[in-house]
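Contributing: when you submit paired examples, paste them exactly as shown. First protein:
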Amino acid sequence: MSKPSLSGVYLLLDEQWVPRHHLPSVLERAAGCGIRLFQYRNKTGSPRDVFAKAKELREVAARWDVLFIVNDRCDIAMAVEADGVHLGQDDLPLALARNIMGRDKIIGISTHRPEEVAQATRGGADYVGYGPLFPTTTKKAHEVPVGCAGLRDIRPLTSLPVFAIGGITLDSVEEVVASGANGVAVASAVFDASSIEQAMRDFVSSFPAPSSPLHQ
């Protein structure tokens, strides 16, 4: 089984948005606007709660034939039959995560500096998230923004798809892609938009139209 190509808009469905947004509905609307790649992130819920919410989102993703990734938790990703898992630098080692997930699942790695990009590439990740490119309010800042110059610096270090993350807006997408990103991971630029669906469509239109990620 060949893995899908990974590029374009990567929408981060973070539990922090729940007071204002119903995540399954957002996923459905986003899929209808052409977004094909999603990640569920819940840093505070109990395992049972994260499982239940991830399962609901996975079912929506399956109906729309889009890719669904779970943040941090290999066990929950496997339990809900997600397409993969996204790991931070403090999560399970990549080799161990691969043993748990299997060869057919997608594993992405958050990276913040060149040596982490090189390590993820050598270790057999399927993509890397790189950033933060710009200041962001979605996550507490532990890393200094690297800017597009930082993205250009790491592009020669990996043949993997690179998703730029951190403070990305519609105005910055063109420069980010020109600097070497295959896609952009976004949250605030969509969830804080006056029109969520218009923001989604505008981000999607910044990239060539993909075919269904599950059938390439």
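Second protein:
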Amino acid sequence: MKKIGSTFGRVYMALIMLFLYAPIIVLIVFSFNAGNSRSIFTGFSLHWYAELFRDSMVLESLYTTLAVSLLSAVIATALGTFASIGFYSMKKRWREPLLAINNIPMMNADIVTGVSLCLLFVAAGSILGFSNGFATLLIAHITFNVPYVILSVMPKLRQLDRHLVDAAQDLGCTWMQAFWKVIVPEIRPGIVNGALMAFTMSIDDFIISYFTAGTGAQTLAVTIYSMTKKRVTPEINALSTLLFATVLTLLIVVNVRSAQQEKKRLKAERALRKTSV
């Protein structure tokens, strides 16, 4: 009976995975189609990838996407790390409500975040005399990336021994020296994971970018959406394949790093148990 249930569970999971990833597999396959048909595969070719990189609009949006993603990841990582240290230093009665507020943007619908930021930028622009563009797009990405960085760094801070910072200061370190030589090395895995997560979320975002970019700057996701309003060519398949491969690679890196850190933690715990015995 258990064997039948286990087999049924495997088949059920396989069907779910097939349902989720079959459209992506078809998209990837037809990105290498020699013809322009979206239903008949006429032969293997890299023609549409060559066409993609000759498209000036796509190249400009690629530059915008990479610039926004890298800048927002770096700035959000710095802000999120210092915010995490601030939360960690607070009393529990203040820390817990603020962390709950920090989680709201992650649980909130992207459409709500995008519309609210759009209205904010439009109101501020009417007063200060600017319009939506690269700057507003960057601010929006930093806004929704910071909570993910805090979520990655806080667990590492909870594992940190508070007495290490006090010991470093007793030995003559200033607070900033203790921060760089004691705190940062201990929480570095969380910082790196937060930065990778921020970059992944930023490069994959569409809804918030659509509402905050304006006409001055467009990300790849917004460009793909504008291309679908016209005749859809396999060039979109090639672009979507590259985006999927980039995000998948980053997610694999994040998961591999997390697995390696867990192995190191378990190995350290086993070594500690052996020495204590």
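If you have annotations for the second protein, write them as plain sentences, like these:
The mean pLDDT is 82.
The first helix runs from residue 2 to 30.
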